[in-house]
Amino acid sequence: MQINQRQKSLIQLLLSHSKPLHGSEISQRINTTTRTLRQDIATINTFFHQENLQIYSNPSKGYWIEENDKTAFINYIKESKNDLIPANQNQREIAICFYLLEHDYEYTSMGLLADLFYVSKTTISNTIKHIEEIVMASKGLQLSISAKKGLQILGSEYAKRNLYSSIILLFYELEGAYINRYIVENYDELHNFETLYQILMSYLTQIKIMLTNKSLMIITNELLISAYRNRIQQKNIEAAVDSSASIDLPFDDIERLLKLKFSEYDKQYLNQLVAKKRRYNAINTNEEAIDVLTNKIIDEFYEAALLSFGLQLHQQQPLTEHLSAMIYYHTTVTHSEFNDLINLKLTHPFAYQVASLMNPIIKKYTDKLLTENELNSLTARLSVILDGNIKKLNIIILTDLSTSLTELLKTELNLYFGQLLTISGIYPLYRAAAAANHDQIDLILATSREASLQGYDIIHISPVLTMDDTMKIFAYIRNHVPSSRCI
What we know:
The chain is an alpha/beta fold. The protein contains 21 helices and eight strands. The protein has helices at about 5-15, 25-30, 35-45, 70-80, 90-100, 110-115, 120-135, 155-185, 195-205, 215-230, 250-260, 265-275, 285-310, 315-330, 345, 350-355, 360-365, 370-390, 405-415, 430-435, 465-480, and strands spanning about 55-60, 60-65, 140-145, 150-155, 395-400, 420-430, 445, 460. The model is unreliable at about 280-285, about 335-340 and about 480-485 (pLDDT under 50). Keywords: Activator, Repeat, Transcription, Transcription regulation.
C-alpha cells in the first residue's frame, strides 16, 4: 500500500495550516470531490496506523493534523519525494508541465514550484522559458504568466491532452523511466499500469497490429492520464475530434479495469492516438511459422500444468489469447522492464508457481526466459482464472498454538493456498471431536503429532509453515483433485 500524489498534496495542505480545514475547502484546493477526500483520508490513516499517526476530523470543525505529529508527517513527505524530484533540466520541465496541467484550475506561484522541486526561483524562471516554448507550439493553449499570481495553462481539454502527449513524445527517449514513474505515482491510483499494457498488447495482436514497445508504453501512459482527468478531475474532451481512426480500442475491458466511462469524444481521441503510433509491419510475415511455434509452447505449458498441478487450462480462451500475444512479443521484441511492480511471487505464490512452468518451455524454443513483467502478467491472468474456477478443498486446522501463532499460520496458509483451500474452521486439540461435525471436510492440518481424527486425512505441519509443509500440502492437492477441478 502506498500514498499517491493527491494524498500527499492533502497532507501538505493540512501541514501548512494550524487550524482545521473544512472538507469542502480542501476538496476545492486539491480539485477533488468530498467523497474522494473521505476515501483519501481513510487510506492515509490506514497507511500511518502503525506509526500512531492520523488526520483528525470533527463534523463541525473539519480536518487537521496535530502539532505533535507534524514533524513525522513532514519527514515522510521528504523521504517519499526523492524518487520524483527532478534530477536534471529535462525532468524539471516534465514535472512542471505536468504539475501545471494537474492544477490548471488555478494559478501556481513560482515560489511554490521552487519549494516543490527543491530549486531556486531563478532556476524555475529559466525552466519556465523552455516550458513557454513548448506550450506555444501546442495549438489552442496559452501559458498565462502573472507577476502576482503565477502561472496557469489556459485552453481546451483536447489541447491539454495533446500537450501531455507532446511532452511524453518529446522527452520519452531520454526520460522514459522518469515519465513512467511519474505517471504511475500520480495518475495510476488503481495500480493498473501493467494490466492495462497487457490488455492493449493482447488486443492489438489479435487484430494483427503490433506497436513498437515504446509506442505501447506511451499509449498506456496516455490512457492513464485520460482516465485520471476523467475520473478524478471530471474533465472530458468537449467536442468531436477526427473520428477516422481505423482502430477501435477494447473500451469495455478498459473501462471495467479503470472503473469509469469514457465519453464518445474521449474514445474518438484515444483511438486517434493509437492510430498515429509507430508500429512494426502488420503481423503477417511468417505467420504460419509463428502460429506453429506458439501452439507448441502453449500445448507444452498446458501439459505441464496438468502433470504438475492437475490443472486443465486448455479450455480457457482468454488465457490462450494472452499466451499467444505474450509469446509473439517475447520472440520478436526487446521489452523494457516496468518499475515498482507488485511482487506477485509473494502475493499470489501458487499462480506464480504455475506461471513459472512456462520458463523452461519458452527458453527451449526462444533461448530466453520470460522477463519479470511477462511472468508477473501471466501470474495475474492465472490468478484470476484460478480464483474464479477452481473448486477449493475444505480444510480445518487443529492447533496447540497460541492465538497469535495460530493467526500467523492461518495467514501463511491463505497466502500460499488461498486459491486451492478454504479454511472452514480452527480448533484447539482438545476440541478435535467437534471438528468432525463439519460437512465435507477434505483435509485436516494439525500442528501436533498427537492430533488424530478417525476417517479423515491429516497432514502434520510445523507451527511456522516450512517448505516441506508446503510441498506435502501441494502433493496432497495434486492427488486429491475434485472432479470439478477441470477448469
